[in-house]
Amino acid sequence: MKKITVLAAVLVLCAAHASAYENSYAGYSVKDGQPYYKLEAKKVYAYTNISSKKVYQNEENLKNTAVNIVNYYTAEDMEQILGEKFSTAYFDAEYEKLALLERSQLNPKTVPVPLLELDKYAEHDSNGNLTIQSKVLKEKLEKLTPLIKTGKIAGKKAITISYLYKQGDVLVKIDTSLVSANDRLYLLSTVNTDQDLYAPKKDEKDADADADADIDDIDTDAESDENDEAKTEPKSAASAKEEMDKALEVENVFVRDVPAETMQRFAKAHTDLLKGFKAFAPTSTPKAIGFTDAAAGKSVQLPDDWFYGQLNLKYKDKGTFYLTLASSMKEMQEVAANTDYDSVYAVLAIPQADPEYQKKVTELYSSGARNVLQHWNHLLITASVDNITDAEIKELLSTPVANRLAVESFISEGLQRMKGFSNEYFALKDYKTNFDFTQEKALIGINADTDLLKDFAYNNKILLSCNQKAATAMLFIKKTDVETEKSLEQQVNKWHF
Questions:
Q1: Rounded to an integer, what distance in angstroms lies between the CA atom of residue 51 and that of residue 272?
Q2: Which of 107, 136, 348, 470 is the most exposed place for a label (fewest CB within 10 A)?
Q3: H helices present in 338-467, as ranges
Q4: 446 in Cβ contact with 467 (< 8 Å)
Q5: DSSP code, position 259
Q6: Could you give the 3-state DSSP secondary structure of residue 451?
Q7: In this structure, is the dihedral angle defined by the CA atoms of residues 47, 50, 56 and 60, taken in order, positive or negative?
Q8: What are the angstrom distances between the C-alpha of 430 and each of 309, 381, 445, 446?
Q9: Torsion from C-alpha of 104, 105, 109, 115, nearest 10 degrees
Q10: Phi, psi at residue 33, to the nearest 5°?
């Protein structure tokens, strides 16, 4: 009996460990429950609160998905942000000061609290950190009134900043709790949405459709001419920007106007994040950023400044699908910082019927693509699926010699055609192929050099492989004049069965 009890305890511990993310250098772990989507970078980990097993069992799961985000900052990071020494004792003192204001029913904003000035964190985002408040929603959140509360959540002293607002037809709640341990600060954020509360009712949609039908019935030639003029009359870039801003406009929402069960769901999602978060003494060895594709049976360790995002879907009786994208965080931020949004608004202001529309769209595509290519030097994409039952795959492996000749002929002919169709946007300069077919596995390798927009030269490596149980694909793109870590290239070259 004792042996059974011990075995059960071990299994429970193993299961708990398997569903938890741990960063020993950051000094924390969090129970993520094998999420269907996750993103990891040097100082941030984000994941959905729906597991890969449950995501397709019920479509309602996707509508109620919350995204949890953990950011961490060392004492040195915080000193740069605050302009003064930081420690857990400093945090505790700020916590008590805010708690006193709360008990006195005074607005926490009546006294300066540098710790809550989240705009200051934006200046530190280039160091491998991304925060919701300072990047994605900064301008929007500045228009909203946050609720600041202190209190213990799951036994942890937490200063929580909450936003509740409406954007379009969607209700959004963002909770960010600041907690501290071992002289480090952790931002634990949960983004919840509800797509039902403000969604147009069915009868409203029907009424709109009936109104449109009535208008169509009484349409006249004069009205048609007016409509044509309205379609061709150019709008200003400012008006297009105004329309776009209106569509993205945010509006404060009061708790009293939201159903209690919705608020309870929001609260539970954030409480679950804090319950699953555990801080411990950090180690001195930085955590290597990398991902594992279980279907392919491969792991890749990424350069220090990279990030990856991985989609993991478990289909009932159909295996598991993995899709992973990885690149440089710094390069991604440079692309975003150098995007010309005014040009985008200017093109949106042009009616599609205008003769200049297609020309301007082409120019925008070219300038936008050029901006991306100027700053983005690397991209790695992998996709895999296991538990293959496709008859075509088995047929491919059953007659390897004949199928290799057929596949090689098809791909080589396609590449040669592509090389002949080169233009100012895309040019295939040279390529090499490799085909290895046996009854156990099939491998297709393509190494191609391309020019994009004439000025940007890239090397593209494509590996496709399958065996009797799984199939995988890998695409690695890099600029030819940019150095890439040799260890990464070595790992990429081994991405096949």
A1: 14
A2: 107
A3: 341-348, 357-375, 391-398, 400-420
A4: no
A5: -
A6: strand
A7: negative
A8: 31, 22, 14, 11
A9: 60
A10: 65, 35
Q: What's the average pLDDT block by block, 10 residues per block, for the chain (497 residues)?
A: 41 48 95 92 91 65 83 93 95 94 78 82 66 62 86 94 91 95 96 91 58 48 48 54 68 94 96 96 92 92 94 79 92 78 66 74 77 90 84 78 92 93 90 94 95 93 91 95 91 88
DSSP sequence for 95-151: HHHHHHHHHTT--GGGS--GGG-THHHHTTTTTT---IIIIISHHHHTTS--EEEEE
Name the residue with tokens 């953990």. Answer: 70
Q: Which residues pair with 450 in a beta bridge?
A: 428, 458
Between CA 57 and CA 64, with CA 62 as vertex, the angle to 5 degrees is: 115
* Six token digits for residue 51: 């597991």
CA neighbor of 453 nearest in space, from 479, 430, 415 = 479
Question: Residue 83 region, left (φ>0) first, then alpha (ψ -120 to 50), else beta?
Answer: left
Measured distance between the N- and C-terminal CA atoms of the chain, rounded to whole angstroms: 44
CB neighbour list of residue 120: distance below 8 Å, 6 or more residues apart:
81, 82, 114
In the prediction, which pLDDT does 333 show?
79
Chain mean position to CA 423: 33
Find where tokens 């071992």 sit.
182
Alpha-carbon span 28 to 88, nearest angstrom: 15
Q: Residue 120's pLDDT is what?
A: 79
pLDDT at 357: 75
Enumerate residues 6+ apart whose C-beta is below 8 A from 360: 346, 347, 350
The pLDDT of residue 254 is 94
Which residues 6+ apart lie within 8 Å of 467 measured at CB? 397, 440, 441, 442, 497
Q: How far apart are the C-alpha atoms of 349 and 242, rounded to whole Å?
A: 10
β 378-386/441-452 pair status: unpaired
Helix (H, G, I), strand (E, B) or coil at 241: helix
One DSSP character per residue, 172-208 reads EEEEEEEEEETTEEEEEEEEEEESSTTSPPHHHHHHH
Q: Say which residues have a Cβ less than 8 Å from residue 131's Cβ, sequence separation at least 6.
A: 69, 71, 118, 121, 122, 125, 187, 189
Of residues 381, 288, 298, the one with CA closest to residue 41: 288
The SS3 call for residue 44 is: strand
Dihedral of the alpha carbons of 433, 323, 364, 305, in degrees to the nearest 10: -90
